[in-house]
TrEMBL record, chains A, B:
Gene3D superfamilies: 3.30.70.260, Periplasmic binding protein-like II. Its EC number is 4.2.1.51. PANTHER family: PREPHENATE DEHYDRATASE P PROTEIN, PREPHENATE DEHYDRATASE-RELATED. Pfam families: ACT (PF01842), PDT (PF00800). The lineage of its organism: Bacteria, Bacillati, Bacillota, Bacilli, Bacillales. This is Prephenate dehydratase. The gene is pheA. It catalyses: prephenate + H(+) = 3-phenylpyruvate + CO2 + H2O. It comes from Brockia lithotrophica. One of its GO terms (molecular function) is prephenate dehydratase activity. It is an enzyme of class 4 (lyase).
Length: 285, 285
């Protein structure tokens, strides 16, 4: 049975995404940091790892991307797009505590930032305290049921701690979703077909000259290969030297994408193929 | 006297960068989160704010960029490039404790990740515990001088807490630097001249078609305007819709950059000018 490493503790959004990987049998294993998660799969302690790659709540997504690019040699096998909704949760004795009497609200700094306007409007006088994860915020509130405290977090996590939902969907932006990547060394068997596919490449410019990036992009655009995302990340060689993380909005083909890759290499750029994979947009239920 | 908002607590890398802003008189004010820092300057509670924008240690740089783009209307007045070095610090009674007897090492998750290999090699058996900031890790160690604990953090912060340096420069990558931006509503008087200048633009594609980004970049490249960095950030309208954060490696001129901006607007793209500003590479002493 395949195992999937994820960023714990249990009750995190990463666990919610891992549960949604469309493989019938799987065992989840939690790790404390994103480097640990990726290394687990790289060293073969788990079959796969799942990491947040864009707009995640816990941990740094920059960190996930840097480790994927520089520290491990894993391929991407699937993308999971998970809607992210924070709720406001209290311990059962506080189920009727009026909002002005809530003294403290705990959550991860990213969840607090994503709900900044809500908190200021609804709890102008509460003390907002950051925790290391949304799960830890929920745990703190659950362990102090007699205090007028609340936590922002994920519904499934709150249920696990026996908390009561006071408000659903407190985040300021209505379209809050996080992209997760399933990565590993050996492709999983039995992934179902998907409507959307993506291909991801890493391109490092051979030398920096005006128009180098434009040259790279033109190589795709005249072939009508649409890039759905481009992100520059430091190469770690020096500040201001970049590797380009490029998402193409379709699966790899036999002719056009390989030709673009080959020509970029002939022009002196480094090109690394990270995978061609299905995209699953899932519900968070 | 101008005031500068920064991400606290005191002893953070953001404070080190704020101290390096080349203005003779300034008062620093610490705030608990990056949204708070930016809002302080946007609402006029402080004259300026300083935020980490790339490869920072504390907090999420994605968060800094998203707030700069979407939530405030501030201009960039300067960039400060600060070398980031983590040291390993202990309380005075532990100044000779052999490394194998160090039981716990505390630090912010980003500093831990940047020193992951060092920690595994030098302290394979120590328990590594994340804290909300490097300053908090230093404080924890200072408040428990009789325990065999250590913290990764910034030298000036460690001095403030009376800690002893056991190892300098523990980060895995030798070229670790963080870019900070000084932002505000009104340009500061008396910034010294600098060798390097930069110009920053935000471009939002009018509509998404294959080659749209290539069109935008070509508009700069044929004019020999070199882009030193391009980063795509979600527009927050929907996942997969992006605004491009573009750094040009020189100051704005009277002809070429304005013409490029005007033509991009005529082609239906949104262009926002974030500033043309000096870059200061400073020492962390």
């Amino acid at each position: 049975m395949p195992t999937i490493a994820y960023l714990g503790p249990p009750g995190s959004f990463s666990e919610a995404a891992a549960l949604k990987v469309p493989l019938p049998d799987k065992t989840l294993v939690d790790y404390p940091t994103i480097p640990d998660v990726l290394e687990a799969a790289d060293l073969g302690h788990t079959t796969f790892a799942i990491i947040p790659i864009e707009n995640a709540i816990e941990g740094s997504v920059n960190l996930a991307m840097d480790w994927l690019i520089h520290e491990v040699r894993l391929m991407i096998f699937a993308e999971i797009v998970l809607p992210i909704a924070h709720g406001l949760y209290v311990a059962p004795p506080q189920r009727e505590t009026p909002f002005p009497q809530i003294e403290k609200i705990f959550s991860h700094g990213q969840a607090i930032a994503q709900s900044f306007r809500f908190l200021r409007r609804t709890f102008p006088h509460a003390q907002v305290e950051p925790t290391l994860s949304t799960s830890e915020a929920l745990r703190l509130v659950a362990e102090n049921p007699d205090r007028p405290w609340a936590a922002l977090g994920h519904r499934r996590g709150a249920e696990r701690y026996g908390l009561v939902e006071r408000i659903r969907d407190v985040q300021d932006s209505p379209n809050n979703a996080t992209r997760f990547l399933l990565v590993g060394h050996t492709p999983p068997a039995g992934l179902p077909p998907s409507e959307r596919k993506k291909t991801t490449l890493l391109v490092t410019l051979g030398r920096d000259f005006p128009g180098a990036l434009s040259q790279v992009l033109h190589c795709f655009s005249w072939r009508a290969i649409n890039l759905s995302r481009i992100e520059s990340r430091p190469t770690k060689r020096r500040l201001g030297s970049y590797v380009f993380y490029i998402d193409i909005d379709r699966g790899v083909d036999d002719v056009l994408i390989p030709a673009a890759m080959e020509e970029l290499r002939a022009l002196g750029h480094e090109v690394r193929f990270l995978g061609s994979y299905p995209v699953y947009e899932v519900d968070d239920d």
